[in-house]
């Protein structure tokens, strides 16, 4: 019993130490720019579509919050997010790589001093507002769905509608214990929220959120222009 307790305690200390160490790593945007070769082939081309496991525009990540990008990459690396291509990329990244790429893309394409309006210019219909209220989406994703209350939450206003739809559907199927799964996202909060909706309702919400003015964008690499 003492041996077991010692092992559990050591594992707990190790886990806490790793978590603290990860938080202590500071991202370098300049370094991130030199490490984005595996990113630009999809995220640096306007209109680029993923073709597997579903067809949809790859998400815009320029202007996305650094903490969210980091959380997403860690989820792909751990397998909590199922996507063969993204997992293959994420498992090659060190903690410093993830921090550097997150720092780089969080400021990529942002215009200094630019401010979003206090609320969306295009108000949602009564139907859409009811859907958004059902899970109280704005309470986490903030004003214009671009001011999340926690930095590990994403900006979603203006994101591609088809990507948002696929992402929301993925939360309904976490596939946490299936290493061979091609889709699914294990996230207890988003899983509970997404499961309240039909796929048709998720698609309706995604369409509205995509129409909201936001900070997310695709910044084409010079070699792809």
Question: Any key phrases for this structure?
Answer:
single chain; Cytochrome Bc1 Complex, Chain D, domain 2; 225 residues; mainly alpha; 2% strand; globular; two-stranded antiparallel sheet; 50% helix
Question: What is the secondary structure topology, with strand pairs?
Answer:
Layout: H1 2-24, H2 29-33, H3 37-43, E1 49-50, E2 56-57, H4 66-78, H5 84-90, H6 95-107, H7 126-134, H8 138-141, H9 161-171, H10 188-194, H11 199-211
Helix pairs in contact: 4-5, 4-6, 9-10, 9-11
Structure description:
By secondary structure, the protein is mostly helical. The chain has one domain (27-109, 121-224): Cytochrome c-like domain (Cytochrome Bc1 Complex, Chain D, domain 2, Orthogonal Bundle), CATH 1.10.760.10. The protein is built from 11 helices and 2 strands. The chain has helices at 2-24, 29-33, 37-43, 66-78, 84-90, 95-107, 126-134, 138-141, 161-171, 188-194, 199-211; strands at residues 49-50, 56-57. A two-stranded antiparallel ribbon has the order 1-2. The N and C termini lie far apart (64 Å). The model is unreliable at 1-21 (pLDDT under 50).
């Amino acid at each position: 019993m003492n041996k077991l307790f010692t092992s559990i305690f050591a594992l707990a200390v190790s886990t806490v130490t790793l978590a603290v160490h990860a938080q202590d790593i500071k991202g370098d945007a300049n370094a991130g720019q030199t490490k984005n070769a595996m990113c630009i082939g999809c995220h640096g081309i306007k209109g680029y579509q993923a073709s597997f496991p579903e067809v949809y525009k790859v998400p815009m990540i320029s202007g996305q919050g650094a903490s969210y990008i980091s959380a997403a990459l860690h989820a792909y690396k751990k397998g909590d997010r199922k996507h063969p291509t993204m997992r293959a990329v994420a498992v090659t990244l060190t903690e410093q790589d993830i921090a550097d790429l997150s720092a780089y893309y969080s400021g990529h394409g942002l215009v200094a001093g630019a401010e979003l309006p206090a609320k969306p210019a295009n108000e949602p219909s009564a139907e859409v507002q009811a859907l958004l209220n059902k899970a109280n989406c704005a309470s986490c994703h903030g004003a214009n769905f671009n001011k999340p209350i926690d930095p590990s939450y994403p900006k979603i206003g203006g994101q591609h509608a088809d990507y948002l739809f696929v992402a929301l559907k993925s939360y309904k199927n976490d596939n946490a214990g299936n290493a061979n799964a091609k889709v699914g996202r294990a996230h207890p909060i988003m899983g509970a929220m997404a499961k309240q909706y039909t796929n048709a309702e998720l698609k309706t919400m995604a369409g509205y959120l995509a129409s909201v003015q936001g900070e997310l964008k695709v910044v084409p690499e010079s070699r792809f222009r």
